[in-house]
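Sequence in, structure out. Go.
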Amino acid sequence: ILSVELRFEERHLELAAAHEAGTADLSDSKQFFFPNLLIWNSATGKRRLADFMAADPADFGLQVAHGRYLTGSGQLDDALMTLNELHRQQPGGLSCTAALLECLFEKNDWNQFATIAKTLPEPVAAEPWLLTRMRGEFALHENRWDDAIRAFDRLAEMEPANPWSAMGLAKAYREQNRQAEREATLARALVLSRIRVSLSNVRENNVDAIRNLANECRQLGLAKAADVFDGHAVRIAESNRRAPGHSMIEE
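Output:
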């Protein structure tokens, strides 16, 4: 349900516990370290959401997720209608507010965005990642470069592989003529883009792709992620060696 409702922050806590307990599989690790590089707005995701909504159409979290799926599919008018109504029902709900701001950002409707942004509480560590990103995007729009950097730095601290954090920081650094930091951030964004493209190949039957991912994690300074994916590669390779029919000659 956390995945279906796009509640990545709460899922992150559950996945962290699974990694601490040593029970996380490869899919868990991909979701834990790269939640916003995986494609969530897929046909499978939509089908799962539809199944959940058919069982509980009144669930508020599912309705917000439906609004986000509409935004992600480019159905912005329908998304706005849905999310405006949900926001009217629960104006203090930060997940719904973040989803509405995302839709307005995609529509380039900065007037309504600003009206809602003025009602936001002060940022806190536990707020939705999407809301933190929207704070950063709004700061960029208003040329508040220091505020943008603070927001995107908070986002990167919560989710080091967040692609929008890297791009937002690069934009702010450019405006402040912080060329060295901008180039380093763009280099980071390039690695993240490569990972996004290759993640679909990171499967139990592709040890080489897992090892390549571990190497790219090291390039990003994500030592823990690199160790985790190296561990998956070792586990799978060892399992393959023990599989019936495997011979040393094949190696």
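Check: Confidence is low (pLDDT under 50) at residues 247-251. The CA atoms of residues 67 and 82 lie 6 Å apart.
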